[in-house]
Design goal:
There is one protein chain. This protein is an alpha/beta fold. The chain has one domain. Helix content is 63%, strand content 7%. The protein has eleven helices and four strands. The protein has a four-stranded mixed β-sheet. A hairpin with a 3-residue loop joins strand 3 and strand 4. Helix 2 crosses helix 4. The model has no long low-confidence stretch (mean pLDDT 90). Bound molecules: zinc ion (ZN). The site of zinc ion (ZN) has 4 residues, from helix 4 and helix 5.
Length: 295
């Protein structure tokens, strides 16, 4: 597996943002965690490479940048270079969220990984489907692109954490990891409905729909687990057990209650995504050589 792209080190990040006053221990933890997440991000990109024509296999690179604001974006010079950049501030937030969990270390690391996959998967969708190459989008189309990317982020997550079917207990655990990761990420980052984005709770619902779509076909045990866990009678005790920190637990409960009762229609955005999909496929230079297989 090649780790393409570049990653700012925790030492460089700390020098750039001295006001953070990172201790040696914190720097080491950031270095260890961000290295692990960088490798995982590259693993997801590697998984999509076989779908790309040879000439473009190395064109997608991952970058962890020096910014402190939590942000992720995709851009570059399609089709030759497509950069997925994630700020170290966002990586730090992912690692901080997981500190508030009272779960086994391996489970916590799986949740951190799943949060990162959702971020990379979202940006990767923008790249693969040529969203970034659309220059004249209207707000409805921009909104549709974001929903499309969130849905595929859920699909990518499922595909990456359920590589082997067969072991029901492992499939069920992976489904719980996916739900917790989605809920934690969107609760922490938050966000109201804007012209471009749906609110964080609705985005969570879209991600889980994508996740469910893949598992229904490939891992029925995980799909059933998702549906059972999303029942509030099961979800609330899970959150009580998993999240130690009261502030985060409250944010999570608020996000879930909004997700289940949001007065915000998605159907127009989904219809717009359906409508524009073939246009995005036509725009994607990355997909040009295999375009006839896309629609
Ligand atoms: Zn986006």
């Amino acid at each position: 597996m090649s780790d393409s792209g570049s990653r700012i080190t925790a030492e460089e990040y700390s020098l750039k943002h001295p006001h953070l006053q990172l201790t040696l221990l914190e720097k080491n933890a950031l270095e260890e965690g961000s290295t692990r997440l960088f490798m995982l991000g590259n693993k997801l990109i590697a998984l999509t490479r076989p779908q790309l024509p040879d000439s473009l296999k190395e064109s997608i690179v991952l970058q962890f940048t020096n910014y402190e604001t939590p942000q992720a974006k995709a851009g570059g010079f399609a089709p030759d270079l497509n950069i997925i950049s994630i700020s170290m501030g966002l990586i730090g937030r992912i690692l901080a969220i997981s500190k508030a969990l009272s779960l086994e270390k391996s489970t916590i690391q799986s949740i951190e990984g799943a949060m990162l996959i959702l971020v990379v998967g979202h940006e990767l969708t923008h790249v693969m489907f040529g969203h970034n190459e659309v220059m004249d989008e209207e707000s409805m189309e921009a909104s549709a692109m974001e929903v499309h990317s969130d849905y595929f982020a859920g699909l990518y997550l499922a595909r990456l954490i359920h590589p082997h079917g067969g072991n029901v207990a492992l499939e069920q655990t992976a489904a719980i990891v996916a739900i917790l990761a989605g809920v934690l990420l969107f609760s922490e980052l938050g966000g109201e409905r804007t012209e471009t984005y749906h609110s964080a709770p609705v985005r969570l619902a879209v991600v889980l729909a994508g996740y469910l779509r893949w598992t229904m076909d490939h891992s029925p045990a995980a799909a059933m687990q998702i549906q059972a866990t999303l029942d509030l009678r099961n979800l609330n005790p899970l959150i009580d057990d998993a999240i130690q920190e009261a502030v985060l637990a409250d944010k999570v409960r608020h996000c879930i209650s909004c997700a289940t009762s949001a007065d915000e229609s998605l159907s127009d955005t989904i219809q717009a995504a359906e409508k524009f999909r073939s246009k995005w496929h036509r725009q994607s230079s990355l997909m040009a050589p295999i375009r006839d297989q896309l629609d």
